[in-house]
Recover the amino acids of this structure.
């Protein structure tokens, strides 16, 4: 499965020392880290957050997920001082918009920054890892197109307009590459 993926990946869940060195990896423009969804091992979360430019906090539109997300944000994400946003994830449109509206209201009441994009629930997503494919490799049909569009929209939000403007480590990059002009326009 891994060899056929259109990107490189590494399982580091039991090796936080590798995660602590993400900034030294120079041959990738973007590195995405999927961390545990619980606070069971805060050490991994804290290690990754120390290396991060941005954080995506997924939140399912179900009231049972509100408290765990709030705990993670309060105990680990906010203290790290890294720009972050909530991503409403795994919403099933067949259930109606009530849960989605309630979740957006909860996020707004908390004052949390939130992506406009919502990742809808599709069976394709739950079967993808078993079938060894990613969202960009789904079959060419209407449902797969809609599933891909959610992630393309998210990618545009993540990469097109970062929540904090220039990444907090951009000054290191500028010094290393002499790319002052690249980031000068980003601050306007």
């Amino acid at each position: 499965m891994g060899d056929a993926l259109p990107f490189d990946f590494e399982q580091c869940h039991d090796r936080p020392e590798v995660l602590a060195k993400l900034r030294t990896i120079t041959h990738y423009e973007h590195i995405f880290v999927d961390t545990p969804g619980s606070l069971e091992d805060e050490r991994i979360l804290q290690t990754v957050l120390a290396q991060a430019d941005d954080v995506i906090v997924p939140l399912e539109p179900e009231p049972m997920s509100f408290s765990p997300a709030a705990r993670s944000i309060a105990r680990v994400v906010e203290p790290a001082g890294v720009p972050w946003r909530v991503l409403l994830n795994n919403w099933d449109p067949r259930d109606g918009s009530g849960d989605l509206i309630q979740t957006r209201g909860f996020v707004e009441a908390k004052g949390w920054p939130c992506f406009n994009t919502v990742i809808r629930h599709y069976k394709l997503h739950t079967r993808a890892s078993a079938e060894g494919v990613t969202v960009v490799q789904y079959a060419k049909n209407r449902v797969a197109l809609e599933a891909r569009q959610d992630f393309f929209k998210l990618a545009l939000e993540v990469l097109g307009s970062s929540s904090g403007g220039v990444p907090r480590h951009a000054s290191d990059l500028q010094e290393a590459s002499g790319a002052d002009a690249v980031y000068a326009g980003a601050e306007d």
Summary: The chain has eight helices and three strands.
